[in-house]
Each structure stands twice: as structure tokens, then as C-alpha cells.
Amino acid sequence: MAKTSPVSLRLDPDLNDRIAAVAAALDRPKSWAIEQAVKEYVATQEGQLAAIKEGIEDADAGRVVDHREVAEWVASWDTAKPEPKPECG
Question: The pTM is what?
Fold first, then answer.
């Protein structure tokens, strides 16, 4: 079993009660429910930060699409003849 590190935190009483209810419904300790929530939060943030970094790198390398082209493309979706997806230039 992996070693864990203790952490102390203060929770709003309502959030504490909600976490306790989720943990009880899952027949798990409250610490397990909190750890799962933190894992999901960290994974989401890591994914968002990676996507932002990739976007910045693409912009720095000139791999971008003009906003006007994207707006025209999106506006054409509800027409009889949608525009082709704009390409990076």
C-alpha cells in the first residue's frame, strides 16, 4: 500500500456535512471522499494547464486562425451551405 501524507484543512460546515453524506452513502471514510475530490480537481487543473500551455505554444509558433474567419464559419452552421472549417495560417 502506498504511503500517505497527513494534511489538515478547514471546511465550511455545510461542505463538511455534504462530504460526510457522500462518504456515508459510499460506505467510505470521509478522508477517502476528500482524497477522491482532490484527485479529480488536480487532474482537471493539470489538463487545463496543459491545454493552455499548448495553446500558447501554438500562438507563439503562428498556428492560429483569425477570429473573423472562425466567427464566419460558426455563423454558417445554420445555413444551407456551411463554410469549410478555417485552417491555421
Answer: 0.74
